[in-house]
Amino acid sequence: MGQGNFTPAYIVVPEGSITTPKGFSAGGLHCGLKKAERHDLGAIVCEVPANAAGVYTTNVFQAAPIQVTRASIEAGGVLRAIIVNSGNANACTGKQGEADAYEMRNKFAEAIHVPIEHVAVASTGVIGELLKMDRVRGGIAELPARLSSTYEAADDFCQSILTTDLVKKEVCVSVTVDGKEVHIAGASKGSGMIHPNMATMLGFVTTDAAIGSEALHRLLRKATDLTFNMITVDGDTSTNDMLVAMASGLAENEELNEAHSDWAAFAEGLRYVCEVLAKAIARDGEGATKLVEVQVRGAVTDEAGQAIAKTVIGSSLVKSAIFGADANWGRIIAAVGRAGQPVNPETVDIRLGDIVTLSQSRPVAFDEEAALAYLKGDTVIIHVDLHMGEGTATAWGCDLTYDYVRINAAYRT
């Protein structure tokens, strides 16, 4: 998106953040859930009731905060705030975990003087341990004083949601709707346990556009399917995956829906925000040294292309070859063939960047040194053309390194 001669409908706001859209403030602090002195409790707050939508993990063992957030959004489709903790997932914690998640919601609602059903809750961290609620309560009492619309406050929030992430992930764009400047911003966390089917992935989107909850949900679901659902780090879908969007409506445009002349422009901006965050998660995969992108063309349908792209990007053998800068196209073709989608074994082309390794399913002599140099870069693009139809898809992931095993072998310690 935004490449070549294509002129995007959005403009990237370089210093933008989740507090750039009108009506939003944020903040974060250290309450003691993490051993190190790092922020571990944060919040996003809207000064008016914001139309809201959420997308959640498909893991059967859904964490308690997801139950709370679902209940809040389903109560009326609006939110005033999202409170988030890191360092503890509050997942597989039974009735006590559920009670703790509701207490987080209720205590924060009381602290900022809003109805309890206007607050969502998200958590990330270690599974199966109860929250240290005395520390959470103390943090909630201090958090309102930390809320601000400044970039620094937004940064505090971004820091508060990280676990094994190496970098914060945020993006902001502006789109013109009814001649008015509308902002869409996002922040996310995710580094390991990433294979969303909605990874541990949390995402938050704010916008000042006027858009109804149901229309926002339709757009969010579509954007998720093309972005967050097209990344993988390790093939594991978390118990806590959640993507929540809030729309304040303070840009005062005519309410967006599919009949609005600027619907497509807004949808493009939202998708771009989600794509940037998704790719940032893939690039920041635990131990990763490279962002890997798989582009599939010529599939029988887009859905078939998506399945093939995710099979290739999720292959441990492909990921290991990329880490070793080994142009082993055999691992790629093997992944294509086991994706369970229609493939003609006589018509597949594969390129690594601009280097053709397979044409019409036949090996092509290529410059091994050039391939080695390309694969040593920090971004690797694998092109697969099936010559079967018009279906296309793009997926993102990362290489599989020694550090991934080291990080996850000692996650709890």
UniProtKB/TrEMBL annotation:
Q: Active site at which residues?
A: 200
Keywords annotated in UniProt: Acyltransferase, Amino-acid biosynthesis, Arginine biosynthesis, Autocatalytic cleavage, Cytoplasm, Multifunctional enzyme, Transferase
Q: Does the keyword Amino-acid biosynthesis apply?
A: yes
GO terms under biological process: L-arginine biosynthetic process; ornithine biosynthetic process
> Which terms does the record give in the GO molecular function aspect?
L-glutamate N-acetyltransferase activity; L-glutamate N-acetyltransferase activity, acting on acetyl-L-ornithine as donor
Q: What is its EC number?
A: 2.3.1.35, 2.3.1.1
Principal localization reads: cytoplasm
| Involved in the stabilization of negative charge on the oxyanion by the formation of the oxyanion hole (site feature) positions | 124-125
Q: Where is this site: Cleavage?
A: 199-200
From what superkingdom does this record's organism come? Answer: Bacteria
Annotated compartments:
Cytoplasm
InterPro entries, per database record: Arg_biosynth_ArgJ, ArgJ-like_dom_sf, ArgJ_beta_C
Catalytic reaction annotation: N(2)-acetyl-L-ornithine + L-glutamate = N-acetyl-L-glutamate + L-ornithine; L-glutamate + acetyl-CoA = N-acetyl-L-glutamate + CoA + H(+)
Residues binding substrate are: 163, 189, 200, 286, 408, 413
Q: Which Gene3D superfamilies match?
A: arginine biosynthesis bifunctional protein suprefamily, ArgJ beta chain, C-terminal domain, L-amino peptidase D-ALA esterase/amidase
Recorded metabolic or biological pathway in which this protein acts = Amino-acid biosynthesis; L-arginine biosynthesis; L-ornithine and N-acetyl-L-glutamate from L-glutamate and N(2)-acetyl-L-ornithine (cyclic): step 1/1; Amino-acid biosynthesis; L-arginine biosynthesis; N(2)-acetyl-L-ornithine from L-glutamate: step 1/4
Please give the GO cellular component terms listed in this UniProt entry.
cytoplasm
Question: Which Pfam families does the record match to this protein?
Answer: ArgJ
Please verify whether the record's keywords include DNA damage: no
Q: How does the annotation summarize its subunit structure? A: Heterotetramer of two alpha and two beta chains.
Family, per entry? Belongs to the ArgJ family.
What the protein does comes down to: Catalyzes two activities which are involved in the cyclic version of arginine biosynthesis: the synthesis of N-acetylglutamate from glutamate and acetyl-CoA as the acetyl donor, and of ornithine by transacetylation between N(2)-acetylornithine and glutamate.
Q: This chain belongs to which protein, by name?
A: Arginine biosynthesis bifunctional protein ArgJ
Q: Which organism is it from?
A: Paenibacillus baekrokdamisoli
Gene, per the UniProt record:
argJ
